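The records we work with from here on pair a chain with its fold. The integers have meaning only within a learned vocabulary of local backbone shapes. A complete example follows; check for yourself that the lines match position by position.

:::
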Amino acid sequence: MSVDLTLIIAIGVLVACGTTLVLERSLTRILVGFVLLGNGVNLFFIVASGPPGAAPIVRDNGERMADPLPQAMALTAIVITLGVTAFGLALAYRTWQLEGHDDVQDDLEDALVIRRAERDDLSASFDEVDESLPEEEGADLPAVDDEVTDENAETADDEPHNDGAPDAGGTR
């Protein structure tokens, strides 16, 4: 069994170029990179299936039968690539309509986490454990207080309450 070196090089180039394009910020480039990755993986399935053989259903002669699993996996990969490409194309088109470009923006929460990490700040929801307490069963769990402290009462009055009624303000 000899493997064609040209196909191996083509697989490497397609996967390398696809990976590089998927790491870009433009949705169009990400889409092209995903298509290149899909084609590289399909070529890999075909190369990994081995030499061609007779059809797996027809058994009238003594030829070696082809393995149908890599062919089925390649067909499945084609369908998945087509679906994700269609979704990505719709996403890129909608982003282009709304923003005038198709660049992926940074997430605001990620930027906040990065700034906190650079300052080495603790999150507001982090409770420090008092190590002077004895170790008992369930001691690592925070205590639940039913009374509202003054600090929590000030913030609780400022927050809007939703009692399940529909929003009459018309905001989205």
